[in-house]
Amino acid sequence: MRIARFAHGGGMSFGVVEGDPGAGTEGLTVAQIEGLPFGRVQTTGQRWAVDDVRLLSPILPSKVVCVGRNYAAHAAEHNAEVPKEPLLFLKPSTSVAGPGDAIRLPTQSKQVEHEAELAVVIGMTGARRIDRATAPAAIFGYTCANDVTARDLQRSDGQWTRAKGFDSFCPLGPWIDTDADVSDVEVTCTVGEEVRQRGRTKDLIFDIPTLVSYVSHVMTLLPGDVILTGTPAGVGPLTDGDTVTVAIDGLGTLSNPVVNLD
Is Disulfide bond set as a keyword in this record (predicted)? Predict the structure, then answer.
């Protein structure tokens, strides 16, 4: 099942995306559901063509928990050691953006970069101190993410809050797939026509159950919270006028224009 959050003439709703998204959004419909998508999903009977609504970020998390250097090749491209335990940091909820929303380049940075990532969306209420075997039951589904980073500020600050936390620095979408097998899928990032990143989730240093369990031993995970699992090698600069696209096999594509912050 694919769950989207979308804006329509009557407001904002969650819905089930119907059809085959292999050829893009043409021909897809979205069936409105009652309330939130966690638990039993019941449709209202209202449907729209996906091309006639505006897809929003598929979830508004209370927090976005990110994992640094979770691909060995990415650690190597920054001359950094592979961590012995998952390296965690946070992005604020205000950094979340949706498909088609602009990534706004802040005036404080001269080096903003893309980081294509697989995102895990939590579904369990109060996932706290769960073990690795229980972790899959806490997962609602998966989506595409871009951990946009002001690289120069990351280096100069000595910690990552400012570099990772600007508004629009966490695009998510286009929807949440609740049934996907993401144990070995390709993650790519394209800027314009140039493929910048290409990796596979089988190369994660710490796999998804390990990450969910590890994070839950630090903080309680709430329904809708998001864990970004790390980025493959090939991160690079974004400039005004670019369009950056994250694609993950079976999950869809997430495209965002890049603009200077006025």
Answer: no
pLDDT, tens digit, 9 for 90 and up, residues 169-218: 999 999 999 999 999 999 999 999 999 999 999 999 999 999 999 999 99
| Helical ranges in the chain per DSSP H | 72-77, 151-157, 161-165, 208-216
- Secondary element (H or E) of residue 150: strand 149-150
Measured at the CA of 48, the angle between CA 47 and CA 51, to 5 degrees, comes to 155
Whole-model pTM: value is: 0.97
The DSSP line for 3-56 is EEEEEETTEEEEEEEES-GGG-STT-EEEEESS-SSSS--EEEEEEEGGGSEE-
Beta strand pairing call for 186-191 and 243-248: antiparallel
One-letter amino acid for residue 3 of the chain:
I
Q: Which range has the worst mean pLDDT, 79-88, 163-172, 217-226, 241-250?
A: 79-88
Length of the chain: 262
199, 72: one domain: yes
Q: Which domain holds residue 101?
A: 64-260
Q: Where residue 44 sits, what CATH number does that domain have?
A: 2.30.30.370
